[in-house]
């Protein structure tokens, strides 16, 4: 293992340069305008796996964006780890808030990243983290030190719901057969406080359209007499939470897993500084569901957030219009036992029910995803735990995260394998936001830790 | 007068062609991108006044868009009518809903306009109506039949608050001195039901900005724990009306003129078919303040409408963002005795007061305008009344309108003259909306009626 670590040290600068090239390709999956760049990125990833020494690399077409597959089977009797990651990225909007181009990566030092961080869309989510795996296997293979079989499945539709990955998995269960799935698409608590993610929230995402009159109207001539779809939409959205921050959609909490006081007490022991949290976000007060702490609100409790809203005149100056339509994108983060499709249906029913007669509403479901919990008493969790001790020098903390990797639940169902969520980002890395970044410390720590994971996992599975 | 009417008949086609040329210039005052077109339009109007035989025509520069002035003083002892109109237009957005180009006028027949209507931005509001005045004076001067003095003041900032017109009036009280101001920027009830506008609503217009976290956040990582400015904005907007449709801004109704039951009863006699109204707008139900009819809600009652809202991700597909900011443009229509500046201040105070600690809000006032009432027992109202009888063959109905011409109150204050609101549009002409149009019937009826107004006014003032 020392040789592997020496190799990583010796090739650090090249690893970084390669990642920067990967980050330059704008693989935005939500916008069809980037289709060619998405393909180019898949090819880049495949090429990098090939160069690392991985076998059977292929860019597998799907009905959407291709999936990159590759494997290294050193001995069929040894356990097999399937590495999952995604090469697609979130849209860069709002582009004007980026301090440097989202696809022109630069290294800058920050308070949290004194050694420097890579600023670019996808640097942390998930190109930087998937590339740690490519470089880790390169280091292992170059030193003939791979202790288990490894497969790679890197997709290009994670940010738009992984629709085709599900089909791909179902059609390739043999090819993808494995003992565990290893995913680096989450975060640690801090660079001196390693953690392993033990739960993810699910997602239900809808777009709503409220239609009032059949055309935009003059707000003087009609104002007061005709329902304004923006005002109505605001009323409807406001009514989705009660005064305690509970979501009012009928049946929404029916399946929510309630944690015991003991579990909640244990959670509260993880370091969290609310003053620092507020300061870093520039807010005077946190806000959320009554009866729960901030850490609980963002992990063990379901939410409902408007992710986008628009309607009427949004240009410069004033226009006195009573618009025909108003729109919103609304997502709900779900916790264990809530079902994404069921929640989408409950929302749709509720939203139609609360609409006044004066408007028509339409609810269009976008992608969803199931919540997931990973147990901590498994060989894979233990392997991640031991690997982090090796490189961080301290015990990682088990941690429930608020984000979603919808595919985790599907892996369990289709591939009959558990996932281990060993990510290396930080919550402050601004993923999905302008100025997304990924610490150099974190990038290298990931590359260093992954080989230890394989080593411990192979040993624990003996 | 018969010669004047004959002249109008003989020159109908040319009048229309000239108006179509005027409509081709996109004089959008709200958007600086159209600055050159605005200037070009002012020059077109000045040129048309010159050709009509008006004297002293000039394009008067202001700090904003120029004002076109011209006059025809036939005898200082005769009364003087100041014609006011505006050559600027509303933005054409949403452009995709226009069936033909907003600045490529076409004539099409409709159910309401079987003789055809001119479809173009500004056709009714107000280029088409101001051009009726240019053609009416041409007809009078060509036949040596002008019975009084006439001055013209055509501005280019009506749609953005007429800021510089106020200054212009104050600096030119002598030049603009007159006995009455004649404005055609309103509507009649129907082509077989002439009406004269006796009141206009005022306007207070603000833009609000709600800021939550200092950057866009991942809605999974932070959702539930941090106030989402879109949700907060929706809550705040929803709270601006109570369950009866009353506006909750403190002090909002303090100065509202309450009409007597007798006045309301008289109003209710004007023809109004609610089923036809709903059908024409494609709505199943009207909505508004409890205790008032639709006609009252859009004329004698103040309103609060969101004219535009935006925030978060509004592109294709899904983005799970918890945005930093959300925005709305909100306007309030005011009724007699409400003061625009006071209402803006009340709104601003209220909006700041209801904001939760978890966000910061900013309220930016746009232009406003005072409500106006015109009495019906004056020579100018009688002149308009008699002129309409001459051309429509029936008594026009006095009618309060919901729109605003903020300058009417200012004229009274600065020029010490009352206005008479003799417009010829229809409410269904889609002003401020896509597919704005103006009936050919209405255009010609206006040109025919205006000379009778001058005749009756001169006689009544003898």
Provide structural commentary.
The structure is a homodimer of 462-residue chains. Chain A has helices at 2-10, 12-23, 35-52, 127-142, 163-171, 229-238, 261-267, 274-281, 294-297, 340-354, 379-392, 407-414, 440-460, and strands at 55-60, 67-72, 80-86, 106-108, 117-119, 149-155, 180-183, 187-188, 195-200, 202-211, 217-218, 303-312, 321-322, 325-334, 360-365, 372-373, 397-400, 418-421, 425-426, 437-439. Chain A starts with a helix and ends with a helix. In chain A, the strands form 6 sheets. Chain A has a 6-stranded mixed β-sheet with strand order 1-2-6-3-7-18, with helices on both faces. In chain A, strands 12-14-10-15 form a 4-stranded antiparallel β-sheet. In chain A, helix 1 (2-10) crosses helix 4. Chain A has 462 residues and is an alpha/beta fold. Chains A and B meet through strand 10, strand 11, helix 6, helix 9 and strand 12 of A and strand 10, strand 11, helix 6, helix 9 and strand 12 of B. Strand 12 of chain A pairs antiparallel with strand 12 of chain B.
